[in-house]
Amino acid sequence: MTNTSSLSSTGTHGTHASPVISRRRLVPRMARGLFLDRQLAFWRKELGLAPAGLTRARVVAVVKETADVRTFLLRPGAGWRRHQAGQWVSLEVEVDGVRLRRCYSLSSGPSDLFVSITVKRVPGGRVSGWLHDNVRVGDMLSIGPAMGEFVLPETGRSKPTPPTGLLLLSGGSGVTPVMSILRELEVRGPIEDVVFVHHARSRADVPFAADLAWIARRNPGLRVIIHCDDEGVRGFDEARFTEAVPDFARRETYLCGPAPMMVRVEETWLRAGATAKLRRERFAAPIVTRTQGDDEKLVQVRLSAAGRTVTAGGEGNLLEQLERAGLTPKFGCRIGICQTCKCRKTSGTVLDLISGAISSEPDEDIRLCTSVARSDLELGL
Amino acid sequence: MTTSTTITTSSKTLTREEADAFGRELDELRREVAEDLGQRDVDHIRAVIKAANYAETAGRLLLAFGFGPVTFALGAGALGVSKILENMEIGHNVMHGQYDFARDPALSGRAYEWDNVCDGGDWRHSHNYEHHTFTNILGKDRDVGYGFLRVSEEQRWHPSHLAQPFTASLLAINFQWGVATHDLRLDELKRDPEARATIGTRARPFLEKAGWQLFKDYAFYPALSLWNAPRVLAGNLLANLGRNLWTFAVIFCGHFPEGVRVFHADEAANESRGQWYLRQIAGSANIEGGKWLHLLTGHLSHQIEHHLFPELPAARYPEMAPRVREICERHGQAYNTGSFAKQLGSVAKRLVKLALPSPRASRASRASRSAKVVAPETATTSTSTSRAAA
Ligand SMILES: Cc1cc2nc3c(=O)[nH]c(=O)nc-3n(C[C@H](O)[C@H](O)[C@H](O)COP(=O)(O)OP(=O)(O)OC[C@H]3O[C@@H](n4cnc5c(N)ncnc54)[C@H](O)[C@@H]3O)c2cc1C
Ligand code: FES
Fold first, then answer.
1. pLDDT at A25
2. Domain locations in chain B?
3. Residue A344: strand, helix, or coil
4. How far apart are CA A198 and CA B182, in angstroms?
5. Assign residue B264 a region: left if phi > 0, alpha if psi is -120 to 50, beta otherwise?
6. How far apart are alpha carbons B35 and A350 in whole angstroms?
7. Strand duo A342-347 + A364-367: pairing
């Protein structure tokens, strides 16, 4: 939604409208030609309405779960559609003038009065740190629609039957989507034969501890197991886990946790031949940051508009590397002044040669002629 | 030649190494400001966008529903100011990518389209790329006299230049059309068959944009106001005219007053970053004035800073200017600045003077310098305004 303007104006210049403009396209074309779209967006903002595609949500409470985890209870305004347990929203904030978007799983169940996100403060993290330090009750946050496939299968049409034989497996802040699923199970009826296994650094680092205890007390069919780093092995340990849940391979499993934990779980399931029963939610793509000496190394660059992937690397900046890979990106000055070579980077890490800054920000515009790849990239070329 | 060419500037010729040392100081200044960008800059541009939107709405309402000459003048004035703000401080600067750091789609340099007949894509090419990369290089920067005005002794005189006081006035009145057709290279159609063959496709973005603009100001808004249509049409015409005259004056003061240098292609070949900086400074001139003047010029009153740091938010130029000036002074570089009246007067005088044939500044005098070194030469003519630390 927010990128309609960028699509439209590149459209004006790059591809020319066919002589016969269909009526469906005439209205947006006209709105753009007369700047009515921009004025509408401006006055919407003046009136405190959310930008197209986003919902404004009021913070109704902030709960300190652990030393570095906080839950923000939100009351979304007009346009919000109920989420499914396990889904996430994209949250847009402005930190010192810079717009940043991050995904947060909803920790609330779909039937809860409020929607909530639960955020762990990542050391040096811009958005998580900002949320912890700045957001107060009464503030407004902008969120996108609930999305994601990490949800319960819809078994019944009108009244879904509560699924049984589930395993909810989490680590760290990965507990959020499985907590939402657990809350939904609770609402659907007495929980039967569900195991909830969470990994934390210590007992004090378990979010929702009181809720968990309360749900477990009311549902004898739920088994809650907490594995703590300071009580034995660090992270996911196959021996400890299989002893606690020997029948794991037959269970529909929902897994969400830090990348290293997920790798180990996947190995265990692979050996048990149960990979098909494993549903996963990832919070972060593993970011490979290359160091200075790696310049000659090759990276894979996915070009989303062209729909292909090329290998780039060696001498020089990204513009030169892509040209050597047979591409013809637009360019002008080639020294970082004219911005002609700017393109959208959807994911990956780049080093800007002029500012020296390294950025892994998703969806940012980079100058090809002043950038070098520090990881595999996806570009909007 | 006559009176005003007697004063010499104090710009020192720098070696490549000296130029690079000079450049490193400017790089450091750039880095400092780039790291400091944040809420303040975004708040500023949003405030200007807000002012421009309110002024536009007020102007259009006054024209459409008002009666009598007072509301007409107020309406046209408000619309004109809104267009000036939108074209200069918002459009020009946003389209340079100055606010890309904010990652706000409404402030995206690649997506922004400004409210005049020039297509944003054409502009990004002719201005951001050609003019800013090849600033004041004869034959490469087509902003030097826009292909039909003689703004420097270095340009060959042609009988058509006799009419330039008149043609320049015509350009001032229709400035947005001059800007809009600039990237079409109409002047090349006569001699270049390739240009003739491609003009149809090349002109399409311009024709489309201009069509919408004409429709907007001279059909859509007049029609919306029913019986007041002629009044609205006249008001819109006046607002566009005011914007044209103002932007013409600002742009001409930025590059064509006395003391601004032009370059030959061989001088700029293989130039280093530091030498590129030197050329930007020698090829630009500032206008002195208050906060409002700077805002209404889109901070192009700091043309020198803009040419050094085109990607930094222009509202930062006033605070950078004293530092730039100090660096120039220490490295013996002239910093061309003066009041609006002075710079505009100087431009007008030169346009008249250069309409007549004059001996081209001899290139032999420059032969002593290596072709690669770019530095403002001591023999260049100048007025007192260009003296460093004036
Ligand atoms: C689908 C999805 C759901 C998510 N749900 C949640 C959630 O419910 N709760 C929650 O707290 N987070 C969740 N995240 C992660 C969240 O989107 C952010 O990545 C996280 O809050 C860090 O953002 P930041 O701006 O604070 O850090 P940044 O400023 O982006 O990063 C700062 C540093 O931290 C590192 N880093 C970034 N993310 C992580 C991470 N997750 N773990 C460890 N190091 C990291 C970066 O590499 C960088 O070095 C989810 C992510 C996805 C994709
Ligand atoms: S080509 Fe000009 S900024 Fe990259």
1. 79
2. 16-37+116-389
3. strand
4. 65
5. beta
6. 17
7. antiparallel
Is B355 within 8 Å of B157 (Cβ atoms)? no
Residue A39 is nearest to which of B37, B53, B119, comparing CB atoms?
A: B53
Q: Which helix (H) or strand (E) holds A91?
A: strand A88-95
Which has the higher per-residue pLDDT, A175 or A314?
A175
Residue B269: what pLDDT? 86
Closest CB from B31, B42, B103 relative to A355: B31
Distance CA B336, CA B348 (A): 17
Distance A39 CA to ligand 2 centre (A): 31
Half-sphere exposure of B58 (CA within 13 A, CB side): 15
Tell whether B166 lies on the interface with A, counting CB pairs under 8 A.
no
pLDDT band at B91 (very low <50, low <70, confident <90, very high): very high
Helices and strands, number each (H, E), in chain A: 9, 19
pLDDT band at A4 (very low <50, low <70, confident <90, very high): very low
Handedness of CA A267, A271, A273, A277 (dihedral sign): negative
Q: Where are the alpha helices (DSSP H) in B10-127?
A: 16-36, 39-65, 68-85, 93-95, 120-123
At residue A323, what is the residue type? E
Q: Of A206, A177, A211, which is closest to residue A66 (Cα–Cα)?
A: A206
Locus of tokens 């200017």: B321
* Bridging pattern class, strands A222-228 and B337-339: unpaired
Which residues face B298 on adjacent strands? none
Residue A271 neighbours by CB distance under 10 Å: 11
Residue with tokens 């079409």: B184
CB A79 within 8 A of CB A146: no
Residue A1, helix vs strand vs coil: coil
Mark yes or no for CB contact A6/B31 under 8 Å: no
Q: Is the pLDDT of residue A162 over 70?
A: no
- Collapsing DSSP to helix, strand or coil, B289 comes out as coil
Would you call B103 and A364 a contact, using CB atoms and an 8 Å cutoff?
A: yes
CA distance A303 to B18: 42
The answer to whether the CB atoms of B311 and A337 lie below 8 A apart is yes
Identify the pLDDT of residue A159: 57
What SS3 state is found at A353? coil
Task: List, in sequence order, every residue forming a beta bridge with A118; answer none if it has no partner.
Answer: A71
Beta strands in A158-262 (DSSP E): 166-171, 194-200, 222-228, 252-256
Taking an 8 Å cut-off on Cβ atoms, the answer to whether A99 and B120 are in contact is no
Task: Specify whether the CB–CB gap between B249 and B124 falls below 8 A.
Answer: no
The full set of domains in chain A, from first to last, is 4-46 (no CATH), 55-143 (2.40.30.10), 166-281 (3.40.50.80), 292-379 (3.10.20.30)
DSSP states along A24-90: HHHHHHHHHHTTHHHHHHHHHHHTTPPPTT-EEEEEEEEEEEETTEEEEEEEE-TT--PPPTT-EEE
DSSP state of A277: G
Q: What is the pLDDT of residue A20?
A: 54
> How high is the pLDDT of residue A293?
52
Sorting pLDDT into bands at 50, 70 and 90, what band is A294? Answer: low
Query: Per the structure block, which two tokens stand in for A165?
Result: 């034989």
| H-run or E-run covering A278 | strand A278-281
* Confidence label for B389 from pLDDT (cuts 50, 70 and 90): very low
Return the higher-pLDDT residue of A23 and A242: A242
First to last CA, chain B: 24
- Local confidence band at A252 (pLDDT 50, 70, 90 cut-offs): very high
**Taking CB atoms and an 8 Å cut-off, how many pairs form between chains A and B?**
130
Q: Are B235 and B65 in contact (CB under 8 A)?
A: no
Run of H or E including A321: helix A318-324
Q: Distance between CA B83 and CA B52 in Å, rounded?
A: 7
Which residue of B50, B96, B105 is in closest CB contact with A5? B105
What was the pLDDT predicted at A302? Answer: 93
